[in-house]
Amino acid sequence: METEDRIVILDHIKNICKRKCILPVVAIVILIALLFIVPFGSLLSPKKVDGVFNLKSSDSFVTVSTGKMKYTGYDVKNGLGTEFSYYYALKDGKCAFALIPKDLVETSKKALAEGSVKEEINNLTFKAKVIEPNRPYKEMIEQFSKDLNWTEEGVNSISTGLIASSANYHPYRYIFCLIAILVLIAISIVRLVINYRRYKDPYSFTVCHYLGKDERRELVDEAQEELDSENYLQINATYITENYFIDLDNSGAFIIPLKDVIWVFRLGRRGFDIRKHTLTYTINFISRDGELMRIPKKSSDEAMAIMKSIKATEYDIITGHSDAKRNMALEIIRRNQEPVTEEEKTEED
């Protein structure tokens, strides 16, 4: 009969998998929300607008076909050094502005003096983002109103308040963001599926990475039997039984057959918080085949207690880190990897 204090490896694995499902689910929800919030559809298929006076505040990205527009005399550059020119149009007592690429305007460059800009354009089509007055626009209006011997308030009073700005049209940034979001959604879905499958079949959880699934199933069952016997040493969430090292910390579930281990040592590292002077330790297990398994996030006391407990087992395991011990371990690995001769096979028989 199971008691409330019974340590069940499969239940621990299921709890880990449930927790690991939370982050992918949250990420998927947020990323899908971003797909609706950011106007990717408008970017990939800009709305066609006939004239700058037909812009709406609800528009994001547009393809504008201009009527007759005049040059304000002012240009700006974006961060990449591309030059744009401010043009304006008057209609029914209203004034609309557009910020158009300079190289697009200069379609008849041969007829213009070098460095000059067309004073008037007609029926030009360009892609833009619909924006409200920003700092470069306000600086332009300040100078433009002086040229007209008018006030900024006067110009703003007849302005439509919306600008068709090619300088703010950055399709590649949005496309990069769209690709990044889709990739993150795909990664989150994959992680969610993996963790859900592991929850449904906890034996598939990688408790020992160098063993196959069938071997891991056997490993979990045998380790559970030894835990049920209650003949083990416990250091917080770590259990050392007669034949297994079992770690059931919140970060994962690890089971290592002690018969496979030739060397175990700890390595400390400082966390990201420089105000904390304590180190966290990783317990490193080296198998007879040279496989490495790391058990992370142990305190100094935990790491020392684990090392002493492993040293006290009946297995001949090298403990601690030094060049001499590393060379001993490498020599054992080298011997294990040497092919067995026919004579050695005969002697074993």
Detailed description of the structure:
The structure is a single chain. With 349 residues, the protein is α+β, with helices and mostly antiparallel strands. The mean pLDDT is 87. It has helices at 9-37, 40-44, 102-105, 135-147, 152-158, 171-200, 213-228, 300-311, 323-337, 342-348, and strands at 47-50, 61-65, 69-77, 83-91, 94-101, 120-121, 125-131, 159-165, 233-235, 238-240, 244-247, 254-257, 261-270, 279-287, 292-298, 318-319. The chain is built from 10 helices and 16 strands. It starts with 8 loop residues before the first helix and ends with a helix. The strands form 3 sheets. It has an 8-stranded mixed sheet. The protein has a 4-stranded antiparallel sheet with strand order 9-10-11-12, with helices on both faces. Helix 1 runs antiparallel to helix 6 and helix 4 (135-147) crosses helix 5 (152-158).
List the helices and strands and how they pair.
Blueprint: H1 9-37, H2 40-44, E1 47-50, E2 61-65, E3 69-77, E4 83-91, E5 94-101, H3 102-105, E6 120-121, E7 125-131, H4 135-147, H5 152-158, E8 159-165, H6 171-200, H7 213-228, E9 233-235, E10 238-240, E11 244-247, E12 254-257, E13 261-270, E14 279-287, E15 292-298, H8 300-311, E16 318-319, H9 323-337, H10 342-348
Parallel strand pairs: 1-2, 5-8, 13-16
Antiparallel strand pairs: 2-7, 3-4, 3-6, 4-5, 7-8, 9-10, 10-11, 11-12, 13-14, 14-15
